[in-house]
């Protein structure tokens, strides 16, 4: 077992029931809530772990997240391309992480490979009453 999967497995031991969601406008992508917990010392805030799995060539459309969301994403497998707020498109490999702050625009979120799958764990700190975590751009 790879060392970076341990936090995911530990968190899943106390998980809410998992669900899978097809992201509107995504191609070859799967999103699963793997845990959700209210933060006991921060009323109104929760932490949610979301597993994003991209098949070869998979991607999510440009999007923002819930207005209260602070996100810490770690690539678990393969490599993921990401672009925040019109900055450079960066490639993050397994074990590497990036952060998104409230209001950030995620212009690119995609598997960096057309041949191998990739996975990332996005940990959200968000207002407990926020139900929609990802809002695709309007066309």
UniProtKB/TrEMBL annotation:
Domain of life of the native organism: Bacteria
A Pfam family that the UniProt record links to this protein: Cupin_2
Signal peptide region: 1-20
Start and end residues of each Cupin type-2 domain: 51-124
Signal is among the record's keywords: yes
KW DNA-binding (keyword) present: no
Keywords: Signal
Protein name: Cupin domain-containing protein
């Amino acid at each position: 077992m790879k060392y970076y999967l341990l936090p995911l497995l530990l968190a899943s031991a106390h998980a809410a029931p998992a669900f899978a969601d097809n992201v509107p406008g995504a191609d070859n992508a799967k999103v699963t809530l793997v845990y959700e917990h209210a933060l006991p010392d921060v009323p109104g805030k929760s932490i949610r772990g979301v597993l994003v799995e991209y098949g070869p060539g998979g991607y999510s459309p440009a999007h923002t997240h819930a207005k209260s969301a602070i996100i810490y994403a770690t690539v678990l497998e393969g490599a993921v391309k990401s672009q925040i707020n019109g900055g450079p498109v960066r490639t993050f490999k397994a074990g590497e992480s990036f952060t998104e702050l409230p209001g950030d625009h995620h212009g690119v979120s995609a598997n960096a490979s057309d041949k191998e799958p990739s996975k990332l764990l996005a940990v959200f700190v968000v207002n407990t009453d926020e139900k929609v975590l990802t809002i695709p751009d309007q066309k």
